[in-house]
Amino acid sequence: xxxxxxxxxxxxxxxxxxxxxxxxxxxxxxxxxxxxxxxxxxxxxxxxxxxxxxxxxxxxxxxxxxxxxxxxxxxxxxxxxxxxxxxxxxxxxxxxxxxxxxxxxxxxxxxxxxxxxxxxxxxxxxxxxxxxxxxxxxxxxxxxxxxxxxxxxxxxxxxxxxxxxxxxxxxxxxxxxxxxxxxxxxxxxxxxxxxxxxxxxxxxxxxxxxxxxxxxxxxxxxxxxxxxxxxxxxxxxxxxxxxxxxxxxxxxxxxxxxxxxxxxxxxxxxxxxxxxxxxxxxxxxxxxxxxxxxxxxxxxxxxxxxxxxxxx
Length: 312
Ligand code: NAD
Ligand code: UDP
Hints:
Rossmann fold, two-stranded parallel ribbon, globular, binds nicotinamide-adenine-dinucleotide, binds uridine-5'-diphosphate
């Protein structure tokens, strides 16, 4: 029998997918997590098996699949630069074919579908802060292009499935997010700095550390994701925290929270590393009545506690 709350989460054993799954299960909804465990882990979903409404499918989204679902949360794609650059052709395939397969499924069963897109569609932005209307400044052939262009074409597929087939799409442009369940070895800046600080290693600053990012705690992001899915808004929407920090400020904050004696080590800036990033969230405020609540320091403390527990 059709249950009107059956959710499919692709990338469900990853960082964001596992938090989303837990949040939906706690609301009493049914959740099927689908993942190929490229960057996700069994540990992230272990506690979810206690919910009767939870199921897991090991599958690669580049292959089609038939399922009866009502909402598709399409998150499957490696998100950290070291992981998406590990096999860049597979990353582009995952974004293109994975999104194509999930849109096909949404069309067939009449499900709503939310694409986890990214601030990377803006590339190294010339407009600051970035509004959804900004078209972006993306290198088509650089080392980040597999991810950036993959997500851009995924957004295009969503828009075309909406126009041509009437599929009910949501396009969420996620800005840098952090929290428990991140991999300590994923190379992203917050997990790297916390891992280094807890292990008394030097904190690695790429370039001069003056490049900026805006960091959203995962609980705020998942609230925004669920509100967007439940809205009627079918165009791209930024979800992220608009408070901007230089990477050096972030390093100082984490150092002071863990061990103020740690040293910095300067390394080369990776190619095409965006110089600045900060979302305009006016659209999310107006349409979803959403804005993040958790301050960076508070979110970092929760994340550091989780890393301490899980690095044992
Ligand atoms: P993550 O790497 O922790 O999770 C991605 C999940 O997708 C993993 O569980 C991985 O095993 C799975 N996956 C990858 N390729 C797959 C495939 N071909 N088939 C099936 N499963 C596959 O990353 P995350 O931070 O949880 O990101 C989730 C989504 O959100 C991604 O689409 C990412 O692009 C997007 N996003 C995340 C952030 C962020 O700051 N975390 C920012 C922007 C966008
Ligand atoms: N970064 C850094 N040291 C690290 C890891 C990352 O200085 O150990 C920098 C990186 O060059 C970038 C920023 O932190 O400018 C955010 O990097 P991350 O990989 O987390 O995300 P993205 O670049 O995709 O926003």
